[in-house]
Design a protein that fits this description.
about 325 residues, 8-stranded mixed sheet, 2 helices, MPT-1-like_LmxM, globular, Glyco_hydro_beta-prop_sf, Tachylectin-2, Chain A, 5-stranded antiparallel sheet, DUF1861 family protein
Length: about 325
């Protein structure tokens, strides 16, 4: 299937297109217990760990950025920490299944080394792998200053690496992609050298990948986010999707799939984060719908039902 990509569209243009499409429905808050006053947000979609269905989530106090990743199981309708599961000093968890292994990633923050930036942080992405949650061991890390790195198994058994570059190469934030043969080849240098995908974001806006879905035809459905600042410095994050041919780097146009107003009202970590939806994961239900899991306003986690945004792309051959 040949993908067609035009010029980069702004959030305003994508929002206008979204308003003319079928809207998501049945929003529901995901309630976490047993962590006191900590918020849980920026979750993964549920996944299997042995006999348990598990969600990984970022947990922190409302006025803090120092986070921990917990693994939660459902008990009587509420999500509680999985007994005996490890806890990681990381932000924004993501998971993947690659060559039979569970891969967990998250963002590690540390104090900025420059004396004039002592109240700021630097960050990098840390990767773990194992047969299950209990056996997860660190095996790689990304370049300093890069979030939103995602891994996925490809049709030939190799590994796709989605990256998010900033600065000289990526401006405010642009997505790149490269392939490696095995997880052993994942290094900061390989990640940093990934070529950018063309014509996705204007220079005034940014985006990143959050999850990849491999289709039977070899295409990748990418769940991500696109974002911008308004004139008052408030952040606006929108969940989006696009499709990538991992062999040619051809991509489809971006489509926004939801806005904050589609979800239930709730608290915000800060006033400038009111209009933030951070993509966590998408469960494709097989009946033409999908369940989308996300963090809302950096304070809560929610899920919402929508038309499967990837269905049309997996029905054709490359």
């Amino acid at each position: 299937m040949r993908l067609k990509k035009g010029v980069a569209k702004t959030c305003t243009e994508l929002l206008r297109e979204f308003q003319h499409r079928e809207q998501p429905y049945i929003a529901e808050k995901i309630v976490f217990k047993s962590l006191g006053n900590m918020d849980v947000y920026n979750i993964t979609a549920p996944f299997k760990d042995g006999n348990d269905t598990v969600i990984a989530g970022r947990a922190e106090l409302r006025n803090d950025e120092h986070s921990q990743i917990y693994f939660f199981i459902n008990k009587d309708g509420f999500w509680v920490p999985k007994p005996g599961a490890p806890v990681f000093e990381l932000q924004d968890p993501f998971i993947a299944r690659i060559n039979g292994l569970l891969v967990l990633g998250g963002v590690e923050i540390s104090p900025h080394p420059h004396p004039d930036a002592k109240h700021k942080f630097i960050w990098k992405t840390i990767f773990y792998k194992g047969k299950n949650i209990a056996s997860l061991k660190k095996f790689a890390e990304g370049p300093v200053g890069m979030k939103d790195i995602r891994l996925t198994e490809l049709k030939d058994g190799s590994v796709g690496v989605l990256t998010r570059h900033q600065g000289h190469k990526g401006g405010l934030g642009k997505i790149g992609f490269t392939k490696i043969r095995t997880l052993d080849e994942l290094t900061p240098e390989v990640i940093d050298s990934a070529p950018l995908l063309a014509k996705q974001f204007t220079d005034e806006e940014w985006g990143g990948a959050n999850e990849a879905h491999l289709f039977p035809n070899g295409l990748l459905g990418i769940l991500g986010h696109i974002a911008h600042f308004d004139h008052e410095g408030n952040r606006h994050y929108y969940p989006m999707v696009f499709v990538l041919n991992p062999d040619t780097l051809e991509i489809s146009d971006i489509s926004i799939i939801a806005t904050r107003s589609n979800f239930l009202k709730g608290p915000s970590k800060r006033p400038d984060l009111n209009d933030v939806v951070f993509s966590g994961g998408l469960i494709r239900e097989g009946n033409g719908t999908a369940t989308f899991f996300a963090g809302t306003s950096d304070a809560e986690a929610q899920k919402i039902t929508m038309k499967d945004p990837f269905r049309v792309y997996e029905q054709n051959d490359l």
